[in-house]
Task: structure prediction
Amino acid sequence: MLVDCAAYRSATLRRRVVPRPLALVRNGTILRSNLRKEFLTEEERLQKLRGNGVSDIGEVITAYIEPDGEVSVLKKRKR
Result:
């Protein structure tokens, strides 16, 4: 809690202790090396994408795992 408070007050400390979002999918391509960095299995990745309304990986422009562990997905527009 002390680190959180200090990071809130200091941008320099925040950059050092708060992880940046990490791309998991880019242009419909799974970034397997980043999955390994986050210790995510294929099943977990699929579950997180389904939770964001993605049924086909080709629908995804980018998907990031956020510092809090949630996955943010930017999908292609439907025509």
Remarks:
- The radius of gyration is 15 Å.
- The beta strands are 22-26, 29-30, 60-65, 71-75.
- The mean pLDDT is 87.
